[in-house]
Amino acid sequence: MGNDRDSSKDESKQDNSSPYFIHHSYHPGMVIISKPLNRDNYATWTWCCSMKISLSAKNKLGFVDGIVETPSAKNNPNEFSLWRRCNDIILSWILNSLTSDIAGNVIYSTTAYEIWQDLI
């Protein structure tokens, strides 16, 4: 039975409808929105809407809105590994879309959900 669970998680890496799917073009240095969040546009929510659209298009919005929860590293190490990899890429994408002064305020967030809560 353990092998069935492991194989289903391996399949989720290949299933592009899975939130854990990472396309070969996704990388931590990727810029997914054109205008970074800064002090001038912070209050307009334009950045937030753009980021949500971009994350949704990549099936990653669940990581910032809390729908995709952090799996247990102890009870589900394979799923946790997939989750962490996606979470870290999303953290990078968000940090890449912030000016350095704003990024400095949220750099120590460890999950995409935490950083999103800090920003909104």
From TrEMBL:
Coiled coil: none
Signal peptide interval: none
A Pfam family matched in the record: Retrotran_gag_3
Span of domain Retrotransposon Copia-like N-terminal: 23-71
Domain of life assignment: Eukaryota
InterPro entries reported in the protein's UniProt record: Copia-like_N (IPR029472)
Comp. bias (Basic and acidic residues): 1-14
Residue numbers spanned by region Disordered: 1-22
Protein name, entry field: Retrotransposon Copia-like N-terminal domain-containing protein
Organism of provenance: Prunus dulcis
